[in-house]
Amino acid sequence: MSEHSEGCIFCRIIAGEFGTSFVAETDDVVAFDDVSPQAPTHILVVPRRHVASVRELVRDDDRLWGEMLEVANRAALERGLADSGYRLVTNSGPDSGQEVFHLHMHVMGGSKLGRLG
Ligand code: 5GP
Ligand code: ZN
Questions:
Q1: Given the CA of residue 33, which atom of ligand 1 is nearest to it?
Q2: Which of 52, 86, 106, 113 is 20 to 30 A (C-alpha) from 76?
Q3: pTM value > 0.90
Q4: Smallest Cα–Cα separation from 103: which of 38, 47, 19, 21?
């Protein structure tokens, strides 16, 4: 796992190449709006460190995963979703449809979401 994966779009966003503003952030995690929202509010929560997907996380990454959850909750609160609710999703691998291979959690809300499954 490298600190910065060459050509990774999320590494470039985190490095500030596009001047993206963060909805919430901590030392190790940032949240920003998805460029192609699938819900009225659609935020991505992303570790600053390049990790390809949740599949690479192990027990010792519990602090990072917890921090992602904290940032997701803070971003949802910031956008007024705390009471109306929201969905957290992370895709891993081809069958999930993962397109960006830098770990991220989707935070979606702002309207009634379709049922899963
Ligand atoms: P995945 O399918 O990998 O779980 O989700 C990738 C998400 O990243 C998609 O929802 C897509 O719209 C979003 N995305 C892809 N490229 C960019 C980008 O350059 N900027 C932002 N903000 N989101 C992006
Ligand atoms: Zn990356």
A1: 22
A2: 52
A3: yes
A4: 47
